[in-house]
């Protein structure tokens, strides 16, 4: 997932950070009795709901590892830096983590554009980062198709996610005419909309309307009026929960009762609060994870998470938990804190059994994973189906 903010500022910050970090190399990091792992999270700003869940998942994994004796005879310490849900701040947070806090690896950011903004820093410092929820292909691959050595992800990529919802729309919802409502300030939303559109058209479907909005918009009635006039069978909204909640609420108030669908950025406890529980009925989104998955590793995770935090984990908690376990596994495999060896160990990961499924990294540092479709019933998320790659 991603948001595009202050592109020129990010470029300037990235160039500065690259200059500062060149030559940092792969020095061993951490004190004699601790190993520091960084977390570059959306703790404040427009996506703060994601950051809270992410922090919970990371801390649960760290606490469990420490309770079992730590790693390589040392305790793990997580250092959290707030990226404020903005790309420029994500670059600042990454620079702090690698240059000041001396972490051996970084979990996050979760948003795609924020992860992309940190690439020059991870490259210059030779410290790997894994984005738990960044689905844009450009996180791990540059414009020339070359894999970025120090960038990984724990989730599927947007082309697969777009195809998943297109398949579900055709086969399960049996819709033929779809309207798109896209966050035009988000490369994540624009990219996912394009992947869905291409896949849906291939199934024989038709896009009858294509409208847009901007982040922090609050009144969508004029746009929804245009969409309603085209009489779509379904509306696809690949945006973030804040605006999505208001869009669905206003659409239902206008008598638009067709299925509402979207991507993994819908997965927030705040969405039912914003949209209203009843308004979310007949709504579906694609996701990487469901707490209702019946694997034993997930059952154990859900039990531990509920005991620690008093609620079921969402996808951000689960994927950040998995990302942390992947980093811990890479440190163990590297048999030390040399950051290049940790990166190489991560790249060689095969058949890692996580709560969101098995992970084997391909040559582009992407895991090949299943997707799930989540349905809202009276404001509660319910597992609908799983779609394999």
From TrEMBL:
Keywords, comma-separated and alphabetical: Amino-acid transport, Signal, Transport
GO biological process: one example: amino acid transport
Record-linked InterPro entries: BCAA_transport, Leu-bd, Leu_Ile_Val-bd, Peripla_BP_I
Signal peptide residues on this chain, from the entry's feature table: 1-22
Family matches, as Gene3D superfamilies: 3.40.50.2300
Keyword Transport: yes
Sequence ranges assigned to domain Leucine-binding protein in this UniProt record: 34-378
UniProt KW Lipid metabolism keyword: no
Pfam families hit by this protein: Peripla_BP_6
Source domain of life: Bacteria
PANTHER family: LEUCINE-SPECIFIC-BINDING PROTEIN, PERIPLASMIC BINDING PROTEIN OF ABC TRANSPORTER FOR NATURAL AMINO ACIDS
Family: Belongs to the leucine-binding protein family.
Protein name: ABC transporter substrate-binding protein
Species the sequence originates in: Candidatus Avacidaminococcus intestinavium
């Amino acid at each position: 997932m991603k948001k595009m903010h202050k592109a020129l500022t990010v470029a300037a910050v990235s160039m500065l950070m690259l200059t500062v970090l060149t030559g940092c190399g792969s020095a061993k990091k951490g004190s004699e009795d601790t190993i520091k792992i960084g977390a570059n999270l959306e703790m404040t700003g427009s996506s703060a709901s994601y950051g809270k869940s992410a922090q919970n998942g990371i801390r649960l994994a760290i606490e469990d590892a420490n309770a079992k004796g730590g790693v390589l005879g040392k305790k793990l310490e997580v250092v959290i830096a707030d990226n404020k849900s903005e790309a420029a701040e994500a670059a600042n947070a990454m620079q702090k983590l690698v240059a000041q806090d001396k972490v051996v690896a970084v979990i996050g950011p979760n948003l795609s554009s924020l992860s992309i903004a940190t690439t020059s820093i991870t490259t210059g410092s030779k410290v790997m980062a894994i984005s738990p929820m960044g689905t844009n292909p450009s996180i791990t691959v540059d414009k020339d198709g070359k894999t970025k050595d120090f960038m990984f992800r724990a989730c599927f990529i947007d082309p697969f996610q777009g195809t998943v919802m297109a398949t579900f729309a055709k086969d399960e919802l049996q819709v033929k005419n779809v309207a798109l409502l896209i966050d035009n300030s988000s490369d994540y939303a624009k990219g996912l909309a394009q992947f869905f559109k291409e896949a849906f058209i291939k199934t024989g479907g038709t896009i009858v309307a294509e409208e847009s909005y901007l982040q922090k918009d609050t009144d969508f009635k004029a746009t929804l009026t245009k969409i309603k006039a085209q009489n779509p069978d379904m509306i696809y909204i690949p945006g973030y929960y804040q605006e999505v909640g208001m869009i669905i609420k206003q659409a239902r108030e206008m008598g638009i009762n067709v299925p509402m669908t979207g991507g993994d950025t819908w997965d927030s406890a705040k969405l039912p609060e914003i949209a209203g529980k009843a308004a979310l009925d007949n709504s579906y989104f694609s996701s990487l994870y469901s707490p209702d998955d019946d694997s034993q590793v997930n059952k154990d995770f859900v039990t531990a998470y509920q005991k620690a935090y008093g609620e079921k984990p969402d996808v951000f908690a689960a994927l950040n938990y998995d990302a942390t376990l992947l980093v811990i596994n890479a440190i163990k495999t590297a048999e030390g804190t040399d950051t290049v060896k940790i990166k190489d160990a991560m790249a060689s990961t095969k058949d890692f059994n996580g709560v969101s499924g098995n992970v084997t990294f391909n040559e582009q540092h992407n895991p090949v994973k299943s997707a799930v479709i989540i349905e809202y019933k009276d404001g509660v998320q319910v597992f609908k189906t799983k779609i394999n790659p």
